[in-house]
């Protein structure tokens, strides 16, 4: 769980704030009460966010990674891969998950528009 005062404040702000989104493409598979991401991609201004992982509904647990990077240029090749800037891993109870910086992905996250 979020333990430090700074992390608790950050989580409270992040979970209650709003942000305009230009584009959202989200596809999930639900099996036995577990939601798994198939594709989650959003853009907001010059930034792009991609998510990967699972949410266990019955256990109310998160196991997600968010990758935030620069939005690909409109004329970029289909396989253009922007450089990720921030990786955030969210794990634990969905009411108060732990937030940790993650390793930059090598599996193609942030690889498509």
Describe the structure.
The chain is mainly β and 113 residues long. Helices cover 11% and strands 48% of the residues. The chain has one helix at residues 5-16, and strands spanning 23-31, 34-44, 47-56, 61-70, 84-93, 98-101.
Summarize the structure.
The chain has one helix at 5-16, and strands spanning 23-31, 34-44, 47-56, 61-70, 84-93, 98-101. By secondary structure, it is mostly beta strands.
Poorly predicted runs of 5 or more residues:
none
Number of domains: 1
* Helix and strand sequence: HEEEEEE
Number of helices: 1
Percent helix, as a range, is: 10-25%
Structural class: mainly beta
Envelope shape:
globular
Instruction: Using the CA coordinates, give the radius of gyration.
Output: 15 Å
Strand content bin? over 45%
Total number of beta strands: 6
End-to-end CA span:
33 Å
Mean model confidence by pLDDT: 78
Major sheet: order of its strands? Answer: 1-2-3-4-5-6
User: What characterizes the major β-sheet?
Assistant: 6 strands, antiparallel
Region (Disordered): 91-113
């Amino acid at each position: 769980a979020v333990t430090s005062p700074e992390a608790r404040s950050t989580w409270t702000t992040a979970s209650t704030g709003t942000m305009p989104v230009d584009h959202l493409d989200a596809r999930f598979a639900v099996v036995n009460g577990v939601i798994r991401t198939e594709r989650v991609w959003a853009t907001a201004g010059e930034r792009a966010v991609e998510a990967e992982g699972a949410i266990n509904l019955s256990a109310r647990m998160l196991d997600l990674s968010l990758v935030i990077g620069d939005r690909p240029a409109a004329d970029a090749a289909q396989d253009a891969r922007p450089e990720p800037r921030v990786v955030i891993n969210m794990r634990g109870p969905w009411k108060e998950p732990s937030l940790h910086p993650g390793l930059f992905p090598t599996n193609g996250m942030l690889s498509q528009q």
